[in-house]
Specification:
Layout (H helix, E strand, L loop, with lengths): L1 H6 L2 E7 L6 H11 L8 H6 L6 H11 L6 H16 L3 E8 L1 H5 L5 H19 L2 E9 L4 H11 L8 E5 L11 H9 L3 E6 L5 H9 L5 E4 L7 H9 L3 E4 L1 H6 L11 H7 L2 E4 L4 H4 L3 H11 L4 H13 L5 H23 L1
Parallel strand pairs: 1-2, 2-3, 3-4, 4-5, 5-6, 6-7, 7-8
Bound molecules: adenine (ADE) and zinc ion.
């Protein structure tokens, strides 16, 4: 079954490129750039990946990404991720990045975007994966900083598919960023936001009504508000769910307690994603295989999750249809082989 899940064609819509830096890579880049990490060895860093909540993870995540300095660093990290994703059946990626964290360390935004774009624009040829970039604003930094970041990114708008909103959630409601998101939409960018990861259902409502997001990242706490669930179902709002992330950041006690199966049965448009795979124990195929086993998902449910990942993407409709056809063929062939 693991083989079926790994081979299942899928899109990944919620993965932070800075969350794909494996400990060994972090130390290799630290050496290359003369950066000192606050851990003595990759093993020590790997041993420090125990978290109490989102903030305790973010503290490590921002410290490690300080190894990224040159365009080539960004290219190498994104390219390595795209190769690992392709090996787990990923055919399309929409990749988050946090430019403010890099610009604050003196890295020009052009180095960040051009470095990442070198990897995403080559991904089809190198890995058989299409890839787009989503620039995330850090909601725990001033709104003016987000506005300045958007202004600095606009000369590169053709290299981006959208903007998102991430980092520490509680205390930083989406509505703060209404004007920045309005400007991003006016520039032709798609818009998404993390909401309802640790924050209340009201933040999900705000992301939808005020930011006019086209997808909600995580969105788990939506389940506390029946009217919101009804709205999400009725509007087919995509939710990018990240099972390993939610368990490791204590959004639920164990994977067995994860509400993914319930969300599917409620008719929510959920997909499975890895969020920060170097930190949370696995890539998207690993997440999908673990929920299959732990939550006893059926083949039909796995098929739905994979189909939702393509439907929820920002690919042109014709490309979505091609992926969905390839997915149907894959599932039909795999089912025939199993029952022959
Ligand atoms: N940045 C990287 N991973 C994140 C997450 N799970 N939530 C918010 N911001 C993030
Ligand atoms: Zn995330």
């Amino acid at each position: 079954m693991r083989e079926f899940v790994m081979g299942l064609p899928k899109a990944e819509l919620h993965v932070h490129v800075e969350g794909t830096i494996e400990p060994a890579t972090a130390f290799a880049l630290a050496d290359r750039n003369g950066v000192t990490l606050p851990w003595p060895t990759p093993a020590a860093l790997a041993g420090a990946l125990e978290f109490d909540d989102l903030q305790s993870f973010l503290d490590v995540y921002y410290a490690v990404m300080a190894v990224l300095r040159t365009p080539a660093d960004f290219t190498d990290v994104a390219d390595a991720y795209l190769g690992r994703a392709a090996a787990q059946g990923v055919r399309h990626v929409e990749l988050f990045f946090d430019p403010q964290a890099h610009v604050a360390r003196g890295v020009p935004i052009g180095s960040v975007i051009d470095g990442l774009y070198a990897a995403t624009s080559a991904a089809r040829e190198r890995h058989g994966v299409s890839a787009g970039l989503i620039l995330c604003f850090m909601r725990d930094r001033p709104v003016a900083d987000a506005a300045a970041t958007l202004a600095a990114a606009l000369p590169h708008v053709g290299k981006l598919v959208g903007v998102g909103l991430d980092s520490a959630e509680v205390g930083f409601p989406p509505g703060l960023f209404a004007d920045v998101f309005g400007d991003a939409r006016a520039a032709g960018l798609h818009v998404v936001a993390h909401a309802g990861e640790e924050g209340p259902p009201g933040y999900v409502w705000e992301a939808i009504r005020t930011l006019r997001v086209e997808r909600v990242d995580h969105g788990l706490r939506s389940l506390e508000d029946d009217a919101l669930v009804a709205h999400l179902v009725e509007s087919r709002m995509p939710l990018t769910v990240c099972p390993f992330s939610t368990v490791r950041l204590r959004g639920c006690a164990t994977l067995a307690d994860h509400p993914l199966a319930r969300m599917l049965r409620l008719g929510l448009t959920v997909s499975v994603n890895s969020d920060d795979p170097a930190y949370f124990g696995g890539y998207v195929g690993d997440n999908l295989d673990a929920v299959r086993e732990t939550l006893a998902l059926t083949d039909d449910e796995l098929h739905t999750l994979a189909a939702n990942s393509f439907r929820s993407s920002f690919l042109p409709e014709e490309e979505k249809r091609e992926h969905l056809r390839a997915l149907d063929t894959y599932v039909a062939d795999a089912t025939n082989v199993r029952f022959r």
